[in-house]
Amino acid sequence: MLLLLFSTAWLAAYTPPGVLASLVDDKRREVDRMRKLPEAREDGPWKLRLGYPAESSSYALGRAIGWRSDTPVVLADLKRASPTGKLGATVSVAPGLVVTDSLSRVRELGAIGALVSTDLTSYGGGPRDLKDACTYARQQLPSSAGGDDAMPIIAKDLIIDPLQIARAACDGAKAVLLVASAALPDLPALLDTCTLLGLEALVEVHTPQEVAVATECGASLILVNERDRATGELVNGQAVGIAALLPPDVTCLACGGISRLDQVRTLRRAGYDGFVLGRSLLGDPRDAEALMAAIAAEQPVQRWSEVISVPKPRSSGGNTITTTGGFVGRAPGDDEFGI
What we know:
Elements: H1 2-12, H2 20-34, H3 45-51, H4 60-65, E1 73-78, E2 81-83, E3 90-92, H5 99-109, E4 113-117, H6 120-123, H7 127-140, E5 153-156, H8 162-170, E6 175-179, H9 187-197, E7 200-205, H10 208-216, E8 221-225, H11 238-243, E9 251-255, H12 261-270, E10 274-277, H13 279-282, H14 285-296, E11 305-313, E12 320-328
Parallel strand pairs: 1-4, 1-10, 4-5, 5-6, 6-7, 7-8, 8-9, 9-10
Antiparallel strand pairs: 2-3, 11-12
Helix pairs in contact: 3-8, 8-9
């Protein structure tokens, strides 16, 4: 309750930090333009999608990641560019990226899903990329988890309005990325929209305050980014420090400048279930193959369990006996695993 009160008071005065404030302002203007498109009219697919609960919900992303897997999973971040801490300035990543070719490539490398950007300003993407990726995955790329699911495609954008989520759903996405720092006061409403539309939400956080709000809102898939969106700078060790704040029932991923096996091992020991890799998968193919092969060859990490006591009445008398059960938690270190 104290944490909830703290977060509510803090949210009342929240504004996106640094360069993110200008990017969010630009995104609001983009959403205003979206509202004038035929798809956003009262009888258009986006508005209609927002008006009715989905007949079913997708859990393709959660199933592909798995629950407390002993081996790490990797999501690919497909983008042509990345933003910097200076408004309008980007860093080229893969300017010639063809989303379907890249999906096929990262799947061969072992990625279980992909983030596909629809943002032109920061990532060089667009809605057509998302449509093409979803169609290709549905037709050509079955989920690594088996069943009828396709390889999960996550729509990546600065999402600040439910209309953006409706558009992603209509384009075929099974999940969306919600960047907490871009729309923190609206995060509960955006998560509710995902539930209404039957989509999963991968919530990106960077600070303890963002973790508090996301978990209070019920986010179950959390991505901890070591790159500060306000400045564009990497904060090395941020994800390890935040790991202790994440609830044990949350599936947690890490991203931001991950390109070496020692980084993967450190984050894995901190309790992360998987990683989002961008530049390290889209750069030199030989480096990408070597990194993914090394991750796949990692020894399984035994997840940590803590003993819990459950009172159980005896058949004769009112006394109780104690039995034990397992509760999956985070791995504190190689030499500290419990059974």
